[in-house]
């Protein structure tokens, strides 16, 4: 008996970039852009520099932590928001 990996044509080279998530500074790209935009709006638009920087640091740190735990945590969270509750009480 031969396995699928022994048969010719069942293995294809796959570039690593096709399987890894796109990260910016360790955080998912969409989260990093949204977090930076929100922090810039607070820091530049409202001229609250310190809260804007704190918001950016805390938000980015949480996004990096979430990406380390589960690289697809934002996709899972988005699906979670779309699901209806199982039991309506």
TrEMBL record:
Keyword Transmembrane helix assigned: yes
A Gene Ontology cellular-component term: membrane
Residue stretches spanning the membrane: 48-67
UniProt subcellular location: Membrane
Keyword terms: Membrane, Transmembrane, Transmembrane helix
A Pfam match: VirB3
Record protein name field: Type IV secretion system protein VirB3
């Amino acid at each position: 008996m031969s396995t699928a990996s022994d048969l010719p044509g069942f293995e294809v080279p796959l570039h690593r970039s096709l399987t890894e998530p796109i990260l910016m500074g360790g955080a998912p790209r969409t989260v990093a852009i949204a977090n930076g935009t929100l922090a810039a709006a607070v820091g530049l638009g409202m001229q609250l520099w310190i809260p804007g920087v704190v918001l950016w640091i805390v938000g980015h740190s949480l996004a990096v932590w979430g990406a380390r735990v589960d690289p697809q945590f934002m996709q899972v969270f988005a699906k979670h928001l779309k699901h209806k509750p199982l039991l309506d009480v």
